[in-house]
Queue: 3 jobs
Job 1
Amino acid sequence: METEIKTSSEAIQEKTSAEDSQALDAAPLPRHVAIIMDGNGRWAQRKGMPRIEGHRNGVKTVRKIVRTAAKAGVEYLTLYCLSSENWKRPPAELSFLMFLLKKYLVDERKEILRQKLQFRTIGRTEELSAGILDEINKTKKLSADNTGMTLCLALNYGARGEIIDAVRKLAEQVERGELQPGQIDEQILSNSLDTTGMPDPDLVIRTAGEMRISNFLLWQISYSELWVTDKHWPEFTEADFHMAMQDYVKRDRRFGGLNS
Ligand code: IPE
Ligand code: IPE
Ligand code: MG
């Protein structure tokens, strides 16, 4: 009797896990993945190298993960490259970051176009140097008609600043009589943010273990799934990215409601 009961409960278990894996196969992948690429400096220091070597190696991971995300069918990939608070770093590190950013924009243009990526940025890019702005605008223009994944770089980005900029724009519209205060809703505010036209991130990945958001996409990540790894950005692999995606599809996104 005992054996029979055990057998039938095992059968139920087997059936359930088969159903589970079917459900997993059918679960939608994240359309928008946003990454806080952290830990470059610590990675380098751990290896006895200067922090800038971490940034140099971080660019290699960017290349790899952009390709991986596009191949996986992600529609939007947002990468936190430079925050509005990163200006607090020492001048030598900042000037190396600017050098690397310009070099990346020039070196990767061909590859961005080959992969048919749509290139965009968020953040106060107008405060970057004219040379960097030129490279940004060139790639934006050349990739404008592409139909592949959107690669969005967060440059001199801070979510609080972004929300302030949006509120100012709306206040100016109200002042000109183009908008009534009562008309302002979530959609209108969303459309005034730098991320206008992009869906909210489904999945936020942070490397290097910190359990914080660091002023990234505060409005947009209200219901994003968070995935944090202890690995530093230069050592983050394609397999890690796939692991994050697999964990994501197992999550039960309830958006405040009740799922069965
Ligand atoms: C992330 O790595 C890159 C930028 C913020 C520009 P960090 O430079 O923050 O590296 P850690 O966190 O100090 O190790
Ligand atoms: C977040 O990393 C910003 C980027 C990855 C560009 P930080 O290293 O600046 O964040 P904190 O200072 O640890 O919060
Ligand atoms: Mg950091």
Job 2
Amino acid sequence: MEILDGKTTSGEILDNLKVEISSLLEQGHRIPRLDIIIIGHDYASEKYVSMKEKKGADLGIKIVVHRFEDNIEDGEIKQLIGKLNQDSLVDGIMVQLPLPKTNKTFNTKDILEVIDISKDVDGLTYSSLGSVWIEREGIGPATPTGIIKLLDEYDIDLTGKNAVVVGRSKIVGLPLAGMLSRRDATVTMAHSKSENLQEICKSADILAIGIGKPKYINRDYIKKDAVVIDIGINRDYEGNLVGDVDFDDVKDICAYITPVPGGVGPMTIASLFFNLIRVYKRNVKKY
Ligand code: NDP
């Protein structure tokens, strides 16, 4: 069994981006810019945003954070996004999710839909989500983008392979299925209503699980020599970080596996900046 090492691979991607950004700046191009909108004070969201600020600064990217209290109206957020859409100095716009659950309900879909597709570095507008099913190079959400980059890094051939994606959320399973299909895998999407999940998973050459259930997938779900992508990030009873796959139970059966931590997680943040620099390069040509 070989580990798909997301920590090392993401480090290499970030190092390459840093070199690329500094060379673009030396050529006289402006600083790439990502605008992040955060609403409320959710601890995990604050942490993710500060991680992006730190990493962005290290890469030479300008990160502008727009903070709102959770009593803000949807209209004000949409108005800001509208302004950022028009600003030629802004390359990427993202709204930190999930939006807070308060007395008022935010309409996440309507808010995200205001983001211009050319600045949708998080790949969550319906147009971006559709694009990854239609174009091989569509810009999609960071987690599935990172998974594809990791598979590429290890030269894992997807053509004609049976790929099973368990979980169909908009940030993970749905776009990942599209990306695998565009790379000529034969894709099955499974979810909480799927019957015979074990049998479906056992048919997979590539098995990707993102369901949020600690160590749910054991060896009974794994085909011999499968590639196992564990997307889950959970805490077990002792508070340790674990995936959706029981790593120790499956490690002798599969050919490749992503560890948790150190697999898909670090690829996610690297892919956000990778997406940003893709749109930035389009923008500097445009203006
Ligand atoms: P969601 O809750 O949005 O979606 C979970 C999906 O799993 C749903 O499609 C659900 O089916 C399906 N599901 C739930 N239980 C089962 C089951 N027993 N059998 C089959 N399918 C099931 O979660 P997310 O997609 O946001 O996150 C999933 C996991 O991935 C979490 O652990 C999260 O922490 C992790 N994650 C990791 C990231 C990373 O960077 N590594 C990034 C984002 C998420 P249905 O649609 O029928 O309800």
Job 3
Amino acid sequence: MSLLSIIVPCYNEEQAVPFFYDEVKKVTESMKASDKNLETELVFIDDGSADETLSVIRGLREKDGSVHFVSFSRNFGKEAAIYAGLEHSRGDYTVIMDADLQDPPALLPEMYRAVTEEGYDSAATRRVTRKGEPVIRSFFARRFYRLINKLSKTEIVDGARDYRIMSRKMVDAILSMKEVNRFTKGIYGWVGFKTRWFEYENIERVAGETKWSFWKLLLYSIEGIVAFSTTPLAFAAMLGLLFTLIAFVLIIFIVIRTLVFGDPTSGWPSMVCIFVFIGGIQLFCMGVIGEYLAKAYMETKKRPIYISKEEE
Ligand code: UDP
Ligand code: MG
């Protein structure tokens, strides 16, 4: 027998979950019909929803024994939900899917074939268009992927979704990474493994609203850079070095000028500008260092990634 676990992070998805369940059931039933050795389980992670998501999931669990769930004590974020799902999945293969049907279940059979028959450890998806998304958001998203791939040695694929099927080995590798600042897109790249990519056009969510504001995405992108690159620290050091050199040249210039032309007192306005400029750069570099320090501080606390209130 081979077990396929489907992990579904849900945060305020009371409207989407029933649609999701019906769609996924259709696909898994047809997969089971053509492969008698296949079993599936659904693991919903209720990420501290404030609406009726948990009761909807409980309702599904009552009529379908292959449904399981973990309910968080508060909202811990999608990354934590994915971690909890991976921890609770028992499958030989595990797939992560959003509750809003933006990850088309119809792709699942093909993704499953890639890991069972074609020798891949993982099959992942990326959207090639960002149709239906605000233009500014797409623009910054593209800039972000370009930047982070320059800064980090870990490959982070533009447009990659969290919709991905993985072998047990890859799931265990991801679970062995216990960091609290979880940037899953980087973690996938970091653990490696042979991945087949599936591409599709962006699909809009069936119901409910996106949980991502522009501000949240911006903070998330900084988190991603800090988690997978230390280049900004090197950049701060280089900037410091560059300004030391400039200062050195200026000192020599001023000493020579004073010796040759005497010492007329002038140039205060330009002096103030230079002070402010250098002061700004210093604060910026300290901010960069502070960002890393803050992350290191949070990691040393070794707090749990999530707290579950109820599971079944
Ligand atoms: N999600 C979650 N915790 C959060 C935010 C989102 O578990 O704090 C879930 C959400 O319910 C959905 C998935 O993560 O199943 C993707 O969220 P969303 O659709 O809002 O993101 P988008 O598709 O717009 O990137
Ligand atoms: Mg979505």
